[in-house]
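Annex B. Sample input.
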Amino acid sequence: MKIDPIYLLAPRPQAKGMPTRRAFLLASGTFVAGTAIGGACGYSMGASGSATAAQQPAAEPDLEKSGDVELDELRRLAVKAPLDELFEKAPLFLHDRVSTYKHDDVLWRGVDRLSKEIIENSGRRVDYAVIGLIINQIEGTARPSSPSLTERVPLLRTRLQEERRRR
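Annex B, continued. Sample output.
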């Protein structure tokens, strides 16, 4: 006697697989495209990050955020800002340094930069009031031991006289 199987449900047909050549081409094309896009994006992010790092000096520990926006801006002016910007904002910088932030040593570096530029660059046009403010701050307010700017006062007075004669 022979027993034949009886199927109540027909067997599921085998799903046709993707041919191996087509699967290989699709996978390799996706890999190449991903590598090209990822490489381009990675390069551009790395290049922009290194350019930013090259343009801006590393943050110094004394220039960390103080929590006071005005003080942070004055510190940036004192240490990192170009001299032209510092001279442009010098009256406000010097006023705020002496009236609001008397005991901040970082701001003295701005006074140091201003006085040094005034002495060394006689071609720079500086308002004589700014020179007077710098002299008053060096002579009249409590300053840190470094930088000691008292030796610059006679040179600043000479420059002040020159600026007054020009006007």
